[in-house]
Design brief:
The chain is of the alpha+beta class. The chain has 7 helices and 14 strands. Strands 4-3-2-1-14-13-12-11 form an 8-stranded mixed β-sheet, with helices on both faces.
């Protein structure tokens, strides 16, 4: 969301929004990020609701000098609205993230997986086993081992690490834009399309007219960009209608049929929006950060 006050009204269609206090504090916090970082655009990405505190997420976009797709950088904040960069993914626990299907607490330093250093445990065992025996002291002047062999102690998996996974998963699965909202320049830089005047009311209600706002993952779109065909087409990003499971998106509108929302059933709380016959579009997530893993069995 770029126009925080105006575009949050689209979230009303799913019965959620931000309070006036939240919105005002967010606007000030986003301005501070913009002062410190050289982004082309700072957006409010969404909110993860926790049991004791909430997480607020901001997204910085850099279009200039970025080949084929803008650079994305995520920021997080708790209820204090002091944003910090979202940490990189902890690859060690990549396969275990889906084990956590409970609500976030909002405590970023809460340990979810306690890691025991095997070397430290072995040392403790040796100390206990050799108690009462003389130990050989290390010579302080002896050659040290190769620094390359020094092991970095394993890091505990915290709620902030889980948050980093969930935010990027939602963004990859759900971030979207209407076809025509972006264009590829001859230098292969993505830009907002200044000629985009919006989808018609009929077009805006068709799922085929929306595409993912991410670097293409499908081979077809990657080859299209490589051949420069994307310079002459507007549908050069992955279409959301091909997402699995089929039926994971729902297109809804208000009574005037001009305010369209594209809602994810896989990640409840995600809303893509577009005002027909205008250049206004975007997306936002406000939810508990839990994926609907049972969706394939419900469709």
């Amino acid at each position: 969301i770029y126009r925080l006050k105006e575009d949050l009204t689209f979230m009303n269609q799913i019965g959620t929004t931000l309070s006036v206090e939240e919105r005002l504090k967010l606007e000030l916090a986003l301005l501070k990020i913009n002062e410190l970082e050289q982004f082309d655009q700072i957006l409010f990405w969404g909110k993860i609701e926790g049991t004791s505190k909430d997480f607020y997420i901001a997204l910085g976009l850099k279009f200039r000098d970025q080949y084929e797709f803008p650079h994305k950088k995520f920021y997080w904040s708790s209820n204090e609205f002091k944003f910090a960069e979202l940490p990189p993914l902890n690859q060690e626990y990549r396969d275990r993230v889906n084990e956590f299907n409970t609500l976030f607490s909002g405590q970023h330093d809460k340990i979810l997986i306690q890691v025991v250093d095997p070397d430290a445990a072995e040392d403790n065992q040796q100390e206990n086993g050799e108690e009462g025996q003389e130990t050989k002291e290390k010579d302080p002047f002896a050659d040290s081992e190769d620094e390359d062999n020094i092991k970095v102690p394993p890091k505990n998996f915290t709620e902030l690490d889980r948050l980093a996974y969930v935010i990027r998963a939602i963004d990859t699965d759900c971030a979207l834009a209407p076809v025509g909202g972006f264009k590829l320049t001859p230098t292969h830089e993505l830009r907002y399309n200044p000629d985009f005047r919006g989808l018609t009311i009929k077009e805006a209600h068709e799922i085929k007219n929306y595409q993912h706002f991410r670097a293409p993952l499908t081979l077809e779109k990657q080859e299209q960009i490589a051949r420069d065909d994307a310079l002459f087409k507007l549908d050069f990003l992955d279409p959301i209608e091909d997402d699995l499971p089929k039926g994971s998106w729902s297109v809804q509108s208000n009574s005037s049929k001009t305010h369209i929302t594209v809602r994810s059933l896989l990640w409840p709380g995600f809303v893509g929006y577009h005002r027909a016959n205008s250049s206004i579009f975007g997306h936002c997530y406000i939810g508990n950060g839990i994926k609907n893993v049972d969706l394939p069995f419900l469709l």
